[in-house]
Amino acid sequence: MAVNYGSKRIVVGAHYGLRDWLAQRVTATLMALFTVLVLGQVMLTKGPIGYDKWAGIFSSQWMKVLTFTIIIALTYHVWVGMRDIWMDYIKPVGVRLSLQVFTLVWLTACAGWGIQVLWRA
């Protein structure tokens, strides 16, 4: 005869916990460091900042790769936050699913546009 002391917890829905909490902190830290780097480059630029100087900051290959990484980090950061908002506050499943799909499509389009702008020139 098996003895059952309590019940096993079945986690459904927002069960991402530590992984997503950590992802939010890591992506936020990456974005903050990137902001400091870009601000440092802008402040060290002599003279008025026009299109040529601004484009020059992002013209080197290492800066394009770093900016690409930040675009992906920003997209994931926003997705985790918006998904949690939808799951916490939108109770009808159909509406929540629609909002999540819309968010994914919107974020993918924004990331694609950002990457296109970055690699165009």
Protein model, in words:
This protein is mainly α and 121 residues long. It has one domain (17-120): 3 helical TM bundles of succinate and fumarate reductases, CATH 1.20.1300. Helix content is 76%, strand content 0%. The chain has helices spanning 17-44, 51-57, 61-89, 93-120. Helix 1 (17-44) crosses helix 3 and helix 3 packs antiparallel against helix 4.
CATH topology: 3 helical TM bundles of succinate and fumarate reductases
SSE order, one letter for each helix or strand? HHHH
Count the strands? 0
Q: Could you list the spans in which at least 5 consecutive residues all have pLDDT below 50? A: none
Superfamily at the CATH H level? Fumarate reductase/succinate dehydrogenase, transmembrane subunit
Structural class: mainly alpha
* Main sheet: strands, sense, barrel: none
Instruction: Supply the number of helical segments.
Output: 4
What are its keywords?
121 residues, 4 helices, elongated, mainly alpha, 3 helical TM bundles of succinate and fumarate reductases
Brief digest:
This protein is mostly helical and 121 residues long.
Helix and strand arrangement:
Layout: H1 17-44, H2 51-57, H3 61-89, H4 93-120
Helix pairs in contact: 1-3, 3-4
